[in-house]
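Can anyone check this?
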Amino acid sequence: MNLNIDKIKLAYNKLKTYVYYDNTELFLREKLVEFETDTVKSNFNLNWEVSKLYTADETKSIFDIFTHEDKSIEENLDIKFTKLLNELNNFNDKSDYFKHLFNSITVNYFPKKIYNSKQDENFITNKKQSDSYKLEKITAFINIPIELHIISIIWINEFGFRFDTELLKECKGNRLILNKEKTDVVKNSSLFKPYFTQYQKWRDESIIVAQNLLKDEKNALFINLDIKDYFHSCRVDLNTYFDVTNEKLNCINYILRKIHVIYSDLIAKKHKFPHDFSSELENKSLLPIGLLSSYVIANHYLNDFDKIVTNKFKPAYYGRYVDDILIVLSEPNIEDYPKGIYEKYSFDFDEYKVKILNEIDNKNKIFELSRVDKYLLQTLYPLFKIMPGGDGKNIIKIDQYDNLVCQSQKTSMYYFDYKESDLVIDKLKQELDFKSSEFRDLPDDNEDLGDFDKNAFYLNYTDSEGKVRTLKDYKENRYGLTVYLTNKILGAIKHKKSVSDDEIKKFLKLFNGENIIEFYRLWEKIFTYLLVNNKPIEYVDFYFRCIEEIKKIDLLKDNFKNTKIKNQYIINTLIKFLDISHELVLSLNPNFLKQNKKVLKNFEYRSNKLESEYIGFFFNEITRPDSFWTMRYRKTNMLRHHYVSIPLLNYTKESYTTTINLLSLNFNVEKYTIDENLLSNSPRPIKFWECTISQLFTDLKEKSYEK
């Protein structure tokens, strides 16, 4: 196929914009920054290295971030885009270029669930510290070069978007932004519809439907299902999505197909995670989490399922957010069908159990059906089948998808009688947020979102009175903690409302022991929380406390005995994730830790103490208080822009040539000059001529500019 440079640039801009606004993909954010600046933390020495994909002649113009030469990121990107274009238009999968890219595909493993060894459900404790943390479940994310990410978006733009056009409106998550005719992806820098808007629609529309049913004096039933390990349970037909016989897209489809095959082999054959299931993958593959094309395919993979639910069963509401399913039924019969005239038409559960036990060739197995199981069979069989699971719990199998099952522990039903109070339905929103596997983060423009005591915990009582004696269990509420942190960070930045020392101590007590591992995705927000409240001592202490707890990670042997996964895989991934979080936050104020000599000494002492355990990794790759790494996030404008105190301050030359505090309000804006190149290369590109910030605001009142 013949591509042009504009298609390469469009794909890259969409990738950068996605990463820019995403709150979770920190590894991809770092890769993108490294791609633009050629700054890589080497295992052997603290320096930068130019990508091995380019010849000496091609690298002569690449930007040198440390000597501040005039060569720009734009020149660097042009070289890389031209190289990628030539390699694609003259495609040879055995070229050094593509061999290097394919050989660079690896997997990052993150913790998903820590094993709870609590034997007595009547014993409740707040003790989180332990000598080791046994991981019951882990999650795999693909780790690939930026060049392959660009190709995945070219696939979406050229071909993958057509799968999105076939989806029903009931499919809410990761929907592409298409033109009005739905013949193409929009040509701006956006790719997917905003996550939080779509998530709110999925959640709120179901509740509105239920409330309307109650107003019409009809009973309503919520069914909330979650597909277990969805991306790795898919068996994607490679020929369906990557047709290499299509000459127009032959090389793009070939490359995407190759990525999927390599990744699936790493998971199934090399790491045997959760066991060796490579025999299931002939002409099929898993869906790599972290590859944007996977989100398009993940939606389409269940398109037939969506159609069956909406056309066959016709619920009052149906919505799917990737692997989270919501169904609202009107006037459900939640009781067993009575004897008499209905007996002939009722579902025979005893007959069903015998049939299932015969299918699995285990007639002696104990197989009991819960009330939820029975109702699913009454109303949604054979789309859903209840099967005995290996752990003694039932699983909910989706018909025609051999490997897709719903997690019984995450399957919930909520029945609302119109004659009773409907106040409890308002609590359903929080319940859905708490349980949803797709909850990522709140947008960072929310204010007045509550305080620590109200948001930190999710309490589970055995009755509605909420007395201490009826407290069955409690969990730290990830949603509530995110609400709290967002509120306090913005309060400190925008309104100069500092958090008291007592509240910070109370907060940090919560982030101790296994909670540090459990809530690793909140590390960046915690660092930001401590930075904006000017707590450098607590900041450094939290950084090293995280490392000490990460070192205690251990895989639960019974769950991983058939795999080749090692403890160190997860430990290394988390230490890198911690340091990216730390580096990203310090980019807002690089002098934050350097200003206090005691803090600086403490950091160096504790890092040197750990060096012997991480030779070739820890010492060479962490971001130290006096490190220059933080400046690369400024130069590429990939820092968190919503925290910058003065609009457009991060678009000035001074923002990346000096270590000014971007959170400060104490600036003479007349002295700060807008950098046109920084603006044009931004994920939010705006073109201006060179001017000061004050001139810019004056001119904006009178003139309009191309965005």
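Reply from J.R.: I decoded it. The first helix runs from residue 5 to 21.
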